[in-house]
Each structure stands twice: as C-alpha cells, then as structure tokens.
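Quick question, first post here. What does this chain look like in 3D?
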Amino acid sequence: MSDESTPDDELMAALEQRWQSGLTDLLEPTAAEVRDAFAGGCPQCLEIGGTWVHLRMCLTCGEVGCCDSSPQTHARLHSEKTGHSVIRTIESDEDWKFSYQLNGFLT
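> Answer (accepted):
Ran it through. Tokens below.
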C-alpha cells in the first residue's frame, strides 16, 4: 500500500471538507478544487506515459481528461464513449463550458 494519494482521494477529501464546512454544493466542486486534485495531470495519460496540454472535467460524472489539443483527447473520447456531452475547463485563467453535442460554448 502506497502513502501517495490519488487524484480521487484528494477530490474526496476536498468534498468531505466542504461537507464538514456546511456547504451544500457537494456534487459540484469548484474548478480550483478539481484543478488542485488533478495537479499531476490527465489520469489516463499518466497511466500510459502520455502527455497532455489542458484538462477538462465532465459535468455529468466528474471525470477529468485532457483537451482536444492533447495527443490522446481523453475528454472527447469520454464523451463519445458515454454520451456525456458537456465539459468545463479547470484551467485557472479560463471559465467556460462546452457541449460536444452542440459543438459550441455554453453560457
């Protein structure tokens, strides 16, 4: 057993902290919380030794994957596999949502 925490462990700890603080939006962590939890990078890219450019989060299930500028495009592949079409950026200097189904940004 390793002492290293996984991104999922870190995200769950952040959600637990929000619950203990009395916050009600437990199912929607902030972009900063997700970004911090996945600071190590795209989980799927890390598994295969790949590279990524930016990270995106599925707004249906919370899975994090790399963007379309990344070689593996894990966020888009997740959408195609599951039908979960809406993502958000978790980059610190961006604030947007995108629908793969509509092929456009959401307001």
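The first helix runs from residue 7 to 20.
The domain at 7-106 is CATH 3.30.40.10 (Herpes Virus-1).
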